[in-house]
Amino acid sequence: MEVEKYRHTSCQTVPSHYQEPIALDSESYIIGIDNHSSCSITNNVDDCIGHLTPSSIKIRGFQGATAYANGIGTVKWTIEDNNGIRHNILIKNTLFAPTTKQCLLCPQQWAQQAKDHFPSRRGTYSIQDDKCIELHWNQDQFCKTVSWDKSTNTALMRSASSYKRFRIFDAIMNFNNKKRQQCNHDTCVCYETTTFNSDDDLYQDENLPFQTMESINEAASTVQADDFSPQANDDRSELLQWHYRLGHLSFPKLKTLALVSIIPKKLAKVEPPKCSACLYGSMTRQAWRSKGERNNINVDLLMLLVIVSQ
């Protein structure tokens, strides 16, 4: 009978009410920091560089919780220090366990492999107190401070922000458009595209969390149709500019703004274009509320705008 191999780690259970740190990009992910683990763990094969050695290691955590590692290899994580500078950290002998919920950094494994002892010893190390944990590396030149999470009382940091997959998605959309027009407005590029047939399409979801009554109120109160006249080659491009300007407000609500002359009235009859950012967000966003709850922010937008315009 083959003896089962074990690696001891502290498998953290994430409570159902736990909310990850806010990500303003499309690709960053959570990396836990735990000096009670035997080695680092990744759940994404894309983090691994070079060859992965097949493995049958069984990861055993708190109260017998288990997971299986499919391979062992070198992982490369990109993080940002306290000054926003990006750094690549390489950790050998990292376990690849696709069933784990998040990546796990073992700081002592990182320090042991770095061998950062010249000219000063202990150039790579971690310290912690009642508020946070600090990661120091490269002869103490760089530092990453991670506060204890209020829900789990553990250190959870995000990898460096990235938009690579979104840029690929956006480039494919642009390539598929037969006609493309560059707007003079420096914050957006408008495209002539086909339109959705219904207001129920994903990119027009009325329950997106950023479409709160307060955000609409604030945006509408500062916008006047005569105060902003972006230069666009056609009405559809101008509508897309307003969509960007008002925080990707849904096109049905933009139509309502046009009907009450908050934005140019001619835009009420314009067929909405596709927004690549909204499409990508609809495909990748996670649930932000449980089923059965009603969204209390759906008020009579027309009455709201009438009050604001007075």
- The count of domains is 2
If helices are DSSP runs of H or I spanning 4 or more residues, what is the number of helices? 7
Q: What is the global morphology?
A: elongated
Spatial order of the strands in the main sheet? 3-8-7-4
**How many strands in all?**
15
- What is the average per-residue confidence, as pLDDT, rounded to a whole number? 75
**Derived structural class:** alpha+beta
Low-confidence stretches: 1-20, 178-217, 223-230, 293-310
The string of secondary-structure elements, in order, is EEEEEEEEEHEEEEHEEHHHHH
Binned strand content: 15-25%
Please, could you describe this protein's structure?
- It is a single chain.
- The protein is an alpha+beta fold.
- It folds into two domains: 153 residues, no CATH class; 146 residues, no CATH class.
- The protein is built from seven helices and 15 strands.
- The strands form five sheets. A four-stranded mixed sheet has the order 3-8-7-4, covered by helices on one side. Strands 1-5-6 form a three-stranded mixed sheet, with no helix packed on it.
- Strand 7 and strand 8 form a beta hairpin.
- The N and C termini lie far apart (81 Å).
